[in-house]
């Protein structure tokens, strides 16, 4: 006979149960999370908030109750897993995993209104649970492939990032010295100049801050052209990563 | 001897006739569609509309007559196709296909000016007829190749899209909480903040809305850099898809 | 003994002379063209033009004399080539080649000041002669490779372009109907809306024209995201083209 | 017994010492450089500078002393290297290498305050020493791979750059003639027009300068679309470069 804890465990940790995983609970929770995310988004519109404030409050209470129950059941049944077997230290270890912390922080602000800090924005991070849905569909292999390539190519990508950041710092400093005379109230400091540099290097270009001197424009043109490399390098790295991985699957012996 | 219906069928459905497809009719219709699109575009310029209003009206009547005839002939001859063989239910089935519905919606507003719906809205659908252009292109292997790769890689592309949308929602929410104090009339709500996020993530950067606080700028820089990944990932996926497909064609045995 | 015409021919058409090509003349002419381009650029700066007007005028006369002589010698000696062998019709045929026309249009405005139209901007097209310099250096194979891939992949690139243009027209029209009520003086016509669409789809985003209604922003977000595809598709096509060409060179038998 | 010079040499040139390289000194110096870069950045913020001016000055003196000692020890011990063996000419040759010049220029302004020119921005170039850190970590192979591909593909990349620059000059000139009548105070000269062109071609699009005439907008749309090619070509080149290099590593015989 199967214990109550084991049954609950199978429900709240479906992916860990080897056979007959039941994703119903996961789908329900993720739907509730998505509704919560939607609530956070539309609640921020003043007109909507004014009209449906009562509804949002009720939905909030309902969600927090469900999420709290989920958290408690997970905390209770996590000892079924090999890694968190010990009743006390196992549960403590589990409660310090990133996902458990986000789950706790998602409900805690409701119970601790007196702590002053508004931690409700943490709830938005639960959105990433949406990726659990991929387990149900057949998208897992795609997700796994993308993650594998990012891990395989992490060194090349890190070097690209390091080079970009160095370029960004050097250009920001040069630009600050080039423009601070002409636009003292725009290029006020190097951190401000770095904001300009990152927005130019990524080719966003808001237009709130841009060079007006000849030297500044030459530097600006150079960093804009460097931005092309910033797009081309990681793309080339990832493209070869994908090709490589697909080739490996075909000729596993190689 | 070939019946009249079969002859018409061969003219209006050239791609379904196996041998000797005659594209003359298709070219005429698509030219007329392109002229219609051109008319819609230049008609919107007030000065041009004021001068050539009469010409536009006549061209409209002529086009609608031709498109109506085309629709009726298609409806009449569609029973030649295996899928729509039955006189009544077959024709009904055909008339509910997306292409047939668009064709109907392209001419219907002209005959039903008395119905209470906003007619101008329906008229826009006529513009989708431009996608018939792709019908000609369908015969080139290029379109087939692109579509095949998009279908092959749909899982990877979907995961990328899902990740991008999640990122967009998370950053929009964080940005709203970071900027609403400093710019309450700009970052008015999370949906507004999402507009900022999508325009930044795609590296468009209009400059109508951008962060001004230090925290906001750090978040903005992070999402701008994430935008590079949003370009690099699908490009890498598609690049490997094209390479793979070309390799397959050479070594079909593999 | 070699005739005078043959000698001149060898000088002005170095790449057509099989052995011992002498590029001295080409280098001199291209240097003069580059100096002309530089003159056109810096002449446009009012302060510089005011100070060195006399010098620019003299340089102009000198350049036109040299370019005219070059043109006449080419016209005279072109009959040495198999394709333009006949004295009259051959020379006429040569003078109608694009490069000869640009060469003629580059000097003609000087002799025909009374024709009224300012054709001096045509001179800038001679800049593309700079690619002749690549013949001298060892960059020819790179230029040839890039051109070959663009030709090989022209169908895929054309389908991408066709799809982009269709998308652009459809979104421009929808955007015009979505925004013209809210911003009648900004979205004045569909051509104006197309300017917005092309600047958004290419992720430039000047910020002179952007949607402000909810529907317009949704459309704007969709076209901005489509822009990622517009970058990813040709990049993927070209990347596979380069890989394919390199693979061919290694295994020519395949 | 090992001489003092040899011992110092081993410390300041760790990568040249074949066995038992000791990177401690490198890590210390690079940390100090990073702290200097950080100081340059935050020192530029007026509020921070006002409060910690004394601290920055002291840190400056400390840094310059360390960097001067490092420079002198390097100058003294460089004769241990084969290339700079001769006491006088060898040291002179070493002091004229780019890295040695940057090291000298990084400390010189401190000792020569009377030279008038503010050379402190040169110090920022020392930031690139950060790449020495990669030697310690295992990122060297990634850095080496990226550099190798950039070198391998330098011809294709150079042709792309040459073509982009030509396009930029041609479009800038055409745009100047198209817009100078409508916006004489914006498109003041061709160099100004080139600033517009580079910001559009790289898809940054600040919005400080953009065409308003119909012809100007058509040119602007064309250059914006050309910008896609400017991203696609180098990306395709690099992607094939990475794929090629990875394939080579697997089948070294090929």
TrEMBL record, chains A, B, C, D:
- According to the record, the segments passing through the membrane are 23-46, 96-115, 158-178, 194-212, 218-242
Q: Which organism is it from?
A: Agaribacillus aureus
Q: How does it sit in the membrane?
A: Multi-pass membrane protein
Q: What is this protein called?
A: Ion transporter
Q: Where is the Ion transport domain?
A: 23-247
Predominant location: membrane
Q: Where in the cell is it found?
A: Membrane
- Print the organism lineage: Bacteria, Pseudomonadati, Bacteroidota, Cytophagia, Cytophagales
Q: Does the keyword Ribonucleoprotein apply?
A: no
